[in-house]
Amino acid sequence: MAIATLVLKVLPAFLCLVDGQTIVCNLKDWTQSSGSAVDDQLVKGSVVALQDQVQQLVGQVKGLQADLLKLQQSSTTSDTGVNVKQCSKRDLNDARTNGILMSCNFVKKQNETVLRVVWNGMLRLIHVGQKSGSCRRWYFTLNGRECSEPQTIDTQIFTNSNGKNRHRPAYVEGYCRGIAAGAVLVEWNIGECITKSYGTGASYSGWEATVRIIVEEVHVNDASATIN
Ligand SMILES: *[C@@H]1O[C@H](CO)[C@@H](O)[C@H](O)[C@H]1NC(C)=O
């Protein structure tokens, strides 16, 4: 009897306040005496056992809260699928020496992610004209501007006066930071080389075989440390 009544008195002292991420349990204020030393010993034993159980439950609840937080974070910072797009074309056969060769519309879902862009296909540059060589540069633009975080994503072909009509496979790839969520127009361009003193030459992009732009939204834990 004494145990039952005392446990009832003790129970309110075990009330735990669960407030957001915090659990506060008052486990101290349990000392109540029935006036009998034997009963007090029994009660003390019960209270200690209850304290252990409460501590275990508190541990379990904290573990569940941590799991829930992880789930909430993963559902807001990443998707289960990969946000990727490929725009491919056969027989691009573009002989222009300046301009936009290919476009690919992409929808970036988050601000904090980086974009990986890839172009692959065939490129050619034959030297023509009086200069010592010809040079063309192929490069990506994102919403009309070249990547600056951290670098441009580009390549060049230089051909000297002995240059033959050599077609080469090209694979240009890079990561770009700082592109906001929303529509991103990814374009593959051709234009002047960084050194301007060479001729334009006769360039050719995408002869017969397939060319493609690949765009992928990538989650990077610490973009500034890993994308340079
Ligand atoms: C991206 O950032 C802009 C500017 O801070 C904000 O208005 C927009 O809601 C953000 N978009 C997403 C998807 O987080």
TrEMBL record:
Keyword list, A-Z: Coiled coil, Signal
Record InterPro entries: CTHRC1_C
Signal peptide as annotated in the record: 1-20
Pfam families reported in the protein's UniProt record: CTHRC1_C (PF25815)
Coiled coil location: 47-74
Domain of life: Eukaryota
Domain CTHRC1 C-terminal residue range list: 83-215
Protein's name according to its UniProt entry: CTHRC1 C-terminal domain-containing protein
Organism: Ridgeia piscesae
